[in-house]
From TrEMBL:
<comment type="similarity">
    <text>Belongs to the Mediator complex subunit 17 family.</text>
</comment>
<feature type="region of interest" description="Disordered">
    <location>
        <begin position="47"/>
        <end position="82"/>
    </location>
</feature>
<dbReference type="GO" id="GO:0006357">
    <property type="term" value="P:regulation of transcription by RNA polymerase II"/>
</dbReference>
<comment type="function">
    <text>Component of the Mediator complex, a coactivator involved in the regulated transcription of nearly all RNA polymerase II-dependent genes. Mediator functions as a bridge to convey information from gene-specific regulatory proteins to the basal RNA polymerase II transcription machinery. Mediator is recruited to promoters by direct interactions with regulatory proteins and serves as a scaffold for the assembly of a functional preinitiation complex with RNA polymerase II and the general transcription factors.</text>
</comment>
<comment type="subunit">
    <text>Component of the Mediator complex.</text>
</comment>
<keyword id="KW-0010">Activator</keyword>
<keyword id="KW-0804">Transcription</keyword>
<feature type="compositionally biased region" description="Basic and acidic residues">
    <location>
        <begin position="62"/>
        <end position="73"/>
    </location>
</feature>
<dbReference type="GO" id="GO:0016592">
    <property type="term" value="C:mediator complex"/>
</dbReference>
<protein>
    <recommendedName>
        <fullName>Mediator of RNA polymerase II transcription subunit 17</fullName>
    </recommendedName>
</protein>
<dbReference type="InterPro" id="IPR019313">
    <property type="entry name" value="Mediator_Med17"/>
</dbReference>
<dbReference type="Pfam" id="PF10156">
    <property type="entry name" value="Med17"/>
</dbReference>
<keyword id="KW-0539">Nucleus</keyword>
<keyword id="KW-0805">Transcription regulation</keyword>
<dbReference type="GO" id="GO:0003712">
    <property type="term" value="F:transcription coregulator activity"/>
</dbReference>
<dbReference type="GO" id="GO:0070847">
    <property type="term" value="C:core mediator complex"/>
</dbReference>
Length: 524
């Protein structure tokens, strides 16, 4: 095969003798076989002394040796045709040449290994010729340092560019990603080629007619070639103009205003606006939804103020509802809405007014409107009889055990937001007046001492305080008066230690006279 090394095959001669001549009579004359010595001499002549032991492994070296083997064939023929030569002459010549080569190799190794035959002395050089001046050394070091510094600067520049690109890619949030986040938090729908969202509380049970729809748009106001600001967002929302800005419900109890025309929307918004953390669209939508809820609360209160019939009618002026819980006092509920368009003139600063806003009542308004939503959402029509309303069994009974008209009307009546908030405002005002009266008497009268212990567990319509009147001395435990004051909506119920109960009105003077009447009893 041409691709691999040559493979040698040993072929033995057949045992038959070679035919030398065939006579006319057909008699064959055979060549006499070689003797043992002749056969040994023939084989010795075929030995190739130039071939190594690893000739079979190196196929490259085998090709020229094959040529040598072919060259030795005419020598073999010459041996055959020169019977006068000694048969071992070629073997002797090859052994002699091999011995000569071995002797030469031994001499070369001896000369190289042992120094007595040949010595190698170093050539003397000029010491000044090999030294480089110090200036050139410094210049070469400076050049190498400059090259290294340049490489380091290039690497640092590439690293800074990659970090800047990563930061910009992180800031360049995709529009679809932001839209997915918006969809996970707000209700969205696609109308044509627009994406609209819902801000209203209709899904929570609200009946407010405002649509509360906002539109999702893509923010294209920024130039991508310039540096992107940190607060950049690829998504923006457009909300209705009447829901922009911020709003809250202000509830306050103040003295009755002599002129109703002075009331209105002037300088009602005094609450400082705080920057909330989060995405711009989320902050904007939360503020718009809060404005919508405040408008719903004020609309509900305005509708109830017009519908409720009371001895002193409620007044609705612009964005303010005025009620009179007690004589000489008025409860003001205002819708404070700031759009941020009006600029505040600070050239003539006004005197800061005390904050009379009742945050508890504002919180209660939000809580009550959410309870109203929950009631509307859970008012599922249950299976009921076809001929009678679904409810208590006595509503469908006839005879003396059935409900009368007054009882049925009392069951169907339910208080609105305005009535509840007025009752809570009455209770808060009566409680604050009671606390002020007790503190005033305690600071004015030194003996006996008046102590008030307010209960932490109260109701929106009722709270309690324990008043302890004691005198100085070793008989302090014996000479003490303990009163329990249960403060309601329009009256105060006083319970003595022995269980006697007295009802007081909301008048401050009546409570003060009652407490002063207890002091002589203690002295006696």
């Amino acid at each position: 095969m041409s691709g691999g090394p040559a493979v040698r095959i040993s072929i033995e001669s057949s045992c038959e003798k070679q035919v030398q001549e065939v006579g006319l009579d057909g008699l064959e004359t055979y060549v006499p076989p070689l003797s043992m010595s002749q056969n040994l001499a023939k084989l010795a002549q075929r030995i190739d002394f130039s071939q190594g032991s690893d000739s079979e492994e190196n196929g490259v070296d085998s090709e020229p040796r094959d040529g040598e083997w072919g060259k030795q064939e005419p020598e073999e023929e010459e041996v055959k045709f020169q019977p006068s030569l000694w048969p071992w002459d070629s073997v002797r010549n090859n052994l002699r040449s091999s011995l000569t080569e071995m002797c030469v190799l031994y001499d070369v190794l001896s000369v190289v290994k042992e120094k007595k035959y040949m010595a190698l002395d170093p050539v003397s050089q000029d010491p000044t010729a090999g030294k480089t001046p110090q200036v050139f050394q410094l210049m070469s070091k400076k050049k190498s340092l400059a090259t290294a510094a340049q490489l380091l600067l290039k690497g640092a520049e590439k690293l800074s560019k990659s970090v800047a690109e990563n930061q910009e890619n992180r800031r360049q949030r995709d529009f679809n990603t932001e839209l997915l986040r918006l969809r996970s938090q707000w209700k969205l729908r696609k109308v044509g080629d627009k994406i609209l969202g819902d801000l209203s509380y209709r899904s929570a049970g609200s009946l407010f007619p405002h649509h509360g729809t906002f539109e999702v748009i893509k923010n294209t106001d920024i130039d991508l070639d310039k540096k992107i600001p940190e607060d950049y967002c690829p998504l923006d929302v457009q909300i209705p103009s009447d829901l922009e800005g911020s709003a809250y419900i202000k509830v306050s109890i103040q003295k009755q205003s002599p002129d109703i025309g002075d009331l209105g929307t002037v300088n009602l918004f005094r609450r400082p606006q705080k920057n909330k953390p989060g995405t711009p669209w989320h902050i904007k939508l939360e503020a718009a939804q809060n404005v919508l809820l405040c408008k719903e609360i004020f609309a509900q209160l305005s509708r109830e103020a017009v519908q409720i019939k009371s001895q002193i009618p409620h007044i609705v002026v612009k964005n303010q509802i005025i009620s009179q819980p007690f004589p000489g006092l008025q409860l003001s509920i205002s819708l404070c809405h700031c759009t941020g368009d009006k600029k505040i003139n600070r050239s003539s600063p006004e005197k800061p007014k005390p904050d009379d806003h009742l945050y508890v009542l504002e919180h209660n308004l939000h809580q009550m409107i959410r309870e109203f939503h929950k009631q509307q959402l859970s008012s599922v029509v249950m299976p009921h009889p076809a001929s009678a309303p679904f409810g208590h069994k006595r509503l469908r009974l006839a005879g003396p055990m059935a409900y009368d008209k007054a009882e049925i009307s009392s069951l169907q009546q339910s208080e609105g937001l305005l009535e509840k908030i007025i009752k809570q405002a009455k209770h808060i005002f009566l409680r604050s007046r009671t606390a002020r009266t007790i503190d005033c008497l305690a600071s004015r009268i030194e003996d006996p001492q008046i102590q008030a212990h307010w209960s932490n567990i109260n109701d929106v319509y009722e709270s309690s305080v324990k008043v302890l009147i004691t005198s100085h001395g070793y008989e302090q435990i014996c000479k003490s008066i303990q009163l329990q004051l249960n403060i309601g909506v329009e009256q105060i119920r006083v319970v003595h230690r022995d269980g006697r109960a007295i009802t007081l009105s909301h008048q401050e003077q009546e409570l003060q006279d009652f407490l002063l009447s207890q002091v002589p009893r203690l002295r006696l």
